Amino acid sequence: MSDENLNYGVEDIALNLGGVGTAPEPMQPGSYPCEISTAEIALGKEPPHNPFIKLTMSVLNPEEYASRKLFTNLMLMSQSLWRLKKTLLSIGFAQEEVEDPALTPKVICESLIGVQVAAHVVTRMYQGSPTDSVTGISSISDLTNEGNLPL
User: Fold this and answer.
1) Is residue 150 included in any domain, yes or no?
2) At 135, which helix (H) or strand (E)?
3) Are 58 and 35 in contact (CB under 8 A)?
4) Residues with Cβ within 8 Å of residue 54, at least 6 apart in sequence
5) What tens digit of pLDDT does each residue of 9-64 get?
6) What does the pLDDT read at residue 150?
7) How many CB atoms lie within 10 A of CB 25?
8) Is residue 10 in a domain?
9) The domain that contains 59 carries what CATH number?
10) DSSP code of 8?
11) Distance (Å, rounded) from C-alpha 70 to C-alpha 56?
12) In a domain, 1, yes or no
């Protein structure tokens, strides 16, 4: 089968983009079950280029938000390590793992991939538009039957 048969006439679909926005509508504030899909070590863009772990999470449900991506950072500066520790413990890391002297950002990143968490989301303005903002993550078991926790 040739590649030209694979487009099934898609190139001829009429698209009306008149009423379409340039970003998805923000999610309702609340807590959502997510799976961490990427965890990468990064440096801040501005001096002093502080190190952090950049997380990308995929929303699992409700269906209207399923597969939507959410983002948050775990800072690696000495004054914020308490928050990193608190987050790791709350999402299921054992005390011994978190306090292991051999723990590195690379090990943390590798351990986070595939972990299911509750992402706590609010709406914030970013460059003049409302957007989803993750205020924290915790154990997925923290979610109530309704799927949301009060923030």
Assistant:
1) no
2) strand 129-139
3) yes
4) 38, 39, 40, 41, 42, 71, 73
5) 778 888 889 888 888 889 999 999 999 999 999 999 999 999 999 999 999 999 99
6) 38
7) 11
8) no
9) 2.40.50
10) T
11) 6
12) no
- From residue 37, alpha-carbon distances to 42, 59, 71, 78, 89 in Å are 16, 10, 10, 26, 19
pLDDT (tens digit, 9 = 90+) per residue, 92-150? Answer: 999 999 999 999 999 999 999 999 999 999 999 998 889 999 999 999 998 864 444 43
Among 99, 34, 38, smallest CA distance to 74 is for 38
Distances (CA, A) of 116 to 45, 56, 97, 150: 29, 12, 18, 19
Distance CA 151, CA 144 (A): 13
Q: How many domains does the chain have?
A: 1
In a domain, 12, yes or no: no
DSSP states of 63-89 as a string? Answer: GGGTT-EEEEEEE-SGGGHHHHHHHHH
Question: SS3 for 61?
Answer: coil
User: Which structural domain range is residue 99 located in?
Assistant: 26-142
DSSP state of 120: E
Of 106, 119, 114, residue with least CA distance to 76 = 106
The radius of gyration computed from the CA coordinates of the chain, to the nearest angstrom, equals 19
Structure tokens that stand for 62 in this block: 């409700």
